[in-house]
């Protein structure tokens, strides 16, 4: 039997920033109603309590003032290289999934020159000019999209080994007068991927994607602060939360099923579903939607590990960070074993969805 080339994860890494911000931190904020652009009549205690009930976010981590997004990513890549037992100099490519570049702590100016993948290569002091670098901007699914690109590189035998990064510092593009600022956090995750020749399917088995740019391209945008008197001309991330919620519930389950169909698997074969950590109730509803497509009523306990309670929504970093936590046995009651089929899924930017089916080896 002729062996086929598959894309295998040989190492994972993460960077959880040092600044822990609990929900109580926001009790002194002045939140504005997005529909009226006036302060809410509700108390902050009520707003924060309701927020926690809906999202299950209790705390989140923010980057230190001396850390940029590319710095977090560099730490995650070093961790992944150590996990894989490889020298960064052996990497053929660096793919960096992010959304806002390196944002300085005192401004929301997006800095993407040079590209962040190039900055990571510089930070790692990789000398090899054949190690290519490029960024992927695809909303929260930046890392899953990067993994799909890496799979194409490897299956085409263009490259043999690389790293895919998901890293963002959303705290620096959050409007302090917007309730959604409580959702966002900072972090980085990275995976070392490598070509393996195998008689049996292993690593990335299949994937499915969709982008609904019309009419959903305006669900996540940049805009001015909700407070019309807020000083400065900075722009902040703006999210049509309810419409995003409806979009995700309507379309993510079908993309997950399509990826499993392509892999020739049934939902019952799946041991873990690692999904973008945006809102715990939303993720639970998405998972129920997947099981409903298979007419399955019972959802196995522990099939969907959650990190959002302590880490918040770090956009492109949520899935690779969660993968690293679970793969290294750092989450109580969660593990991935040899031969397990897992789903890696993300939805974001109001219009992009990816689902990857992976066989752990």
UniProtKB/TrEMBL annotation:
Q: Which InterPro entries does UniProt cross-reference here?
A: ACP_syn_III_C (IPR013747), ACP_syn_III_N (IPR013751), Thiolase-like (IPR016039)
Q: Where is the Beta-ketoacyl-[acyl-carrier-protein] synthase III N-terminal domain?
A: 135-211
> Which residue intervals define the domain Beta-ketoacyl-[acyl-carrier-protein] synthase III C-terminal in the entry?
260-360
Asked if Acyltransferase is a keyword of the record, the answer is: yes
* Keywords for this protein: Acyltransferase, Transferase
Which GO terms of type biological process are on file?
fatty acid biosynthetic process; secondary metabolite biosynthetic process
What GO terms are given for molecular function? 3-oxoacyl-[acyl-carrier-protein] synthase activity
Q: Name one Pfam family in it.
A: ACP_syn_III
Official protein name in the record: 3-oxoacyl-[acyl-carrier-protein] synthase-3
In its UniProt entry, the species of origin is given as: Mangrovibacterium marinum
């Amino acid at each position: 039997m002729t062996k086929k080339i598959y894309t295998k994860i040989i190492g994972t890494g993460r960077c959880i920033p040092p600044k822990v911000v609990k929900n109580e931190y926001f009790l002194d904020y002045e939140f504005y109603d997005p529909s009226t652009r006036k302060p809410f009549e509700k108390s902050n205690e009520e707003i924060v309590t309701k927020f926690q009930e809906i999202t299950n976010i209790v705390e989140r981590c923010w980057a230190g003032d001396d850390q940029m997004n590319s710095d977090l990513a560099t730490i995650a890549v070093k961790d992944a290289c150590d996990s894989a037992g490889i020298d960064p100099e052996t990497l053929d490519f660096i793919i960096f999934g992010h959304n806002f570049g390196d944002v300085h702590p005192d401004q929301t100016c997006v800095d993407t020159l040079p590209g962040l993948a190039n900055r990571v290569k510089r930070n790692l002091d990789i000398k090899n000019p054949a190690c290519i670098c490029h960024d992927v901007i695809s909303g929260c699914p930046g890392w899953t999209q990067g993994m799909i690109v890496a799979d194409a590189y490897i299956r085409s035998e263009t490259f043999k080994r690389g790293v895919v990064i998901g890293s963002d510092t959303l705290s620096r593009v959050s409007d302090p007068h917007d309730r959604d600022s409580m959702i966002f956090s900072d972090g980085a995750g990275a995976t070392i991927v490598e070509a393996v020749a195998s008689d049996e399917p292993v690593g990335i088995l299949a994937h499915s994607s969709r982008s609904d740019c019309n009419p959903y391209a305006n669900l996540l945008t940049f805009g001015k602060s909700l407070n019309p008197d807020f000083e400065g001309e900075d722009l902040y991330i703006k999210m049509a939360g309810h419409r995003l919620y409806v979009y995700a519930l309507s379309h993510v389950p079908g993309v997950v099923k399509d990826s499993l169909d392509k892999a020739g698997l049934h939902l019952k074969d799946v041991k873990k579903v690692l999904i973008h950590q945006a809102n715990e109730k939303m993720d639970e509803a998405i998972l129920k939607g997947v099981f409903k497509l298979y007419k399955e009523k019972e959802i196995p306990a522990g099939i969907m590990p959650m990190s959002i309670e302590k880490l918040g929504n770090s956009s492109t970093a949520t899935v690779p960070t969660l993968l690293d936590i679970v793969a290294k046995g750092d989450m109580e009651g969660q593990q991935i074993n040899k031969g397990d089929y897992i789903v890696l899924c993300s939805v974001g930017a109001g219009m992009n969805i990816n689902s990857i089916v992976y066989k752990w080896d």
